Every structure is written in structure tokens, then in C-alpha cells.
Amino acid sequence: MASVVVHYTAAAVSDRGCKRPANEDAFGYSVEHGMYLVCDGMGGAAAGEVASSLAVEEMLRLLGGGAGEENESLLQRVQKAVAATNEAIYSRSRRNPRLSGMGTTMVALMTEGSRVLVINIGDSRVYRLRNHRLEQLTQDHSLVDEQVREGRLTPAEALRSPLRNVITRALGTQSAVTPDIYALDAESGDLFLLCSDGLTRELADAEIQSLLSADLPLDKRCARLVEAAKKSGGNDNITCLLVQAAE
């Protein structure tokens, strides 16, 4: 029988990588409010950095202030927060020509005891390590991943595709966006990884699983993941956020 989850701990590391001039990833979390986010920004100049930072700030502000309206469920609160955050980024890009077209991916966890909501927009990912087995909980919103799911490309062909950077859903690029939201029950010992594609483009799932399974503090496991991705090329910004469920 699974142990009941009563608390979470978290750690994160974000790195520019080896090739990019700046870090357009952003992360944030509040263990107190059960909120954990990783965003990977896109757009010319510093626009991607603005979009990802704004997304983290807005989501933490909107969901960190209490229980919301009476009888409002966690799912409803999350949906409203995503819509408002999308509007904040989209409106800012419309007001400032230098920020035109900016947007960001977003993966997030919201926790209430053992209940967990996984939120996804774009091609950042959430994984769960349970009993040393790694499972990807999100689906990438990217052109090549959709082609793989439709059987039009093999996974190997997708890795070589010149279109692999094209994402099909992002926060802030359009006036409205629909996130994928999954509900699941956490068990004591579960380890959740939220990461930008700077990690998953460099490391295979088997290597991620091995590094996550090490008996080390969360911050050291984050650092080892980032260093391994840099050693494999570090072609993009790399962000890892780990969330551990415990009794």
C-alpha cells in the first residue's frame, strides 16, 4: 500500500549552457503554496527572457495568494491563472514592438497533499521517477513530436529533423492558449523533474534516470544533470527543478 504524502522538498539549477549568450529559462517555486514552475522563453533580443520571467512571476502571484473564490477547485484556479498569465505576456508584447512575438513554454506542478496537477504548454517536460523507473508525464507540443504521434516520423527521424525546434503551443504568443492539465496521485518517494529542452535534447531518458536515482541531495542531483547536459554539448539553456514527495 502506498505511503501517504504529507510534504514536499525542492531544489533547482538553471544554466546558460555552452553556446547561448544569455539564459532565457526561468523557474520559481513555493513549497508553502505547492507551486513549482519551469519556463523556456523565446523571442528576439531579450524578449524570451522577459516572457519566461513574467510567466513565473504571474503564476506565483496568481496562485500563491490563498484558496481563491469560494467553491473554486484547484483545477479552476489553475485554468484562470494560465489564461491571465497568457494575457499578461500577450498584452505586453503588443504594447512594446521590441517584444513582439515573444512567448514561453511552461511546465508546472501544483500539489495539495498527495494530489498533483501537472500543467504543460510547449516542449519543456515533467518526468516522475518512481521505484527507480522514469516516466515522462507530459507530451511535447512540437511539430516533430506530433508527427511521431501520428506515425508520420520515427523517433530517430524526429531527432534529425530540421523542424525539431518548431513548437505548436506557447504561452503568450496568441490571445488564448489551452494547457494540457493532468491530475495524478503522488506516493511517498516520488521524485518529479521539471526541465527545459536544453536538458532533454542532450541526455537520453536512460541517462536522466540514472542521474536521478543517485543517493544525493536534490541540489546535487540538479547540478549533475546540468553538468552532464553541458558535457554533451550544452547547446541551449538548461534548467532542472526537482520536487520530492515524502511522508
Strand and helix layout:
Layout: E1 7-15, E2 25-30, E3 35-42, H1 47-63, H2 74-95, E4 103-104, E5 106-112, E6 115-121, E7 125-130, E8 133-136, H3 143-149, H4 155-160, E9 180-185, E10 191-195, H5 197-200, H6 205-212, H7 218-231, E11 238-246
Antiparallel strand pairs: 1-11, 2-3, 3-4, 3-5, 5-6, 6-9, 7-8, 7-10, 10-11
Would you mind describing this structure in some detail?
With 247 residues, this protein is of the alpha+beta class. It has a single domain (7-246), classed as PPM-type phosphatase domain (Phosphatase 2c, domain 1). It is 32% helix and 28% strand. The chain contains seven helices and eleven strands. The strands form two sheets. Strands 2, 3, 4, 5, 6 and 9 form a six-stranded antiparallel beta sheet that branches. Strands 1-11-10-7-8 form a five-stranded antiparallel beta sheet. A hairpin with a 2-residue loop joins strand 5 and strand 6. The longest helix has 22 residues, at 74-95. The relative contact order is 0.22. The model has no long low-confidence stretch (mean pLDDT 93).
